[in-house]
Amino acid sequence: MTAIEISGLTKEYGDLTAVDDLTLTVDDGEIFGFLGPNGAGKSTTINMLLDFTRPTTGSATVLGYDTQTEADEISPRVGVLPEGFDIYPRLSGRRHIEFASETKAAEDDPDAILERVGLSAEDAERPAGDYSKGMRQRLATGMALVGDPDLLIMDEPSSGLDPHGIREMQELVRSEAERGTTVFFSSHILEHVEAVCDRVGVLNEGELVAVDTIDGLREEIGGGATMTLTLADAANGAREVAGAVPGITDVTASGRTLECTITDPAAKAGVVTALDNAGATIRDLRIEEVSLESLFTALTNGDGSEPGDGTGAQSGTADEAALETETEVPR
Ligand SMILES: Nc1ncnc2c1ncn2[C@@H]1O[C@H](COP(=O)(O)OP(=O)(O)OP(=O)(O)O)[C@@H](O)[C@H]1O
Q1: What is the ipTM metric for this complex?
Q2: Ligand 1: centre distance to CA 13 (Å)
Q3: Under CATH, which number does the domain 224-289 receive?
């Protein structure tokens, strides 16, 4: 069974098409990242899946049930972490979880759920109005986990969390998936999506511009990688050798450094072997994959990716080094 099946879903607000003819399938047990800049239509899509908003045209099923005619079957089986969750300031954290359990007629142990989302027994007793933004987000996540849902829909789950909280959230998403829960995870923060998702769908101005694994997307846009080799001797003589390896598109030599642009992952080993065969000694090797930042910009034409605009791109820029996978092989 597919967890989510979206077919030609469109939502218009007057002249604005918030979601434009979206067709997408999310498989059972998958962690699917729904990625896109601010205003791309992610929340609108989620709202249609939950029947909070009706589509202008198109249809969708969630866990095999039609979102418009069988929404009552869907809600008990789905845990939702909404964007901008409102707490009841005077109620304790535990009471929030109990409330969610009563609503879903579930029999979860509130303390076990609070522990899973990183709220202590002491926190559980405090009024949620006193919670920090990150603690509120954890509480909202706990409420979403009540009733052991088959599908977890999370709208910007890392919002308000510090790096430690983000790591915990990612572990939680993974452990939910291991329990068999499908996770549909919306975010504009690229590295969060890469860290947990099996596949991603990229939405831009309401349109789905790509669906693939992150590696698949990298290959699709041909971003490739850059391989920098430090040789024992001047690199100029090795330039031609590296350039002849299939999958290498460009080679520059400077001093003892050789820089190769790679479009085929197999070319990495090919260069090392070719240089070795030609008698060159490799002292150091460094590979930089295309950053998610540039991948996202390529797919969304830079929309929403301006540094400092408050979108995930800002965090992406600050953490650019962290976004790039680097492999160093000292020799
Ligand atoms: N109720 C509404 N009335 C009119 N326009 C709306 C409404 N809800 C959303 N929109 C518009 O639809 C577009 C998509 O918004 P949506 O909230 O789905 O984007 P998003 O991808 O979730 O963005 P963000 O990452 O900022 O949450 C935006 O242009 C938004 O202004």
Answers
A1: 0.97
A2: 9
A3: 3.30.70.100
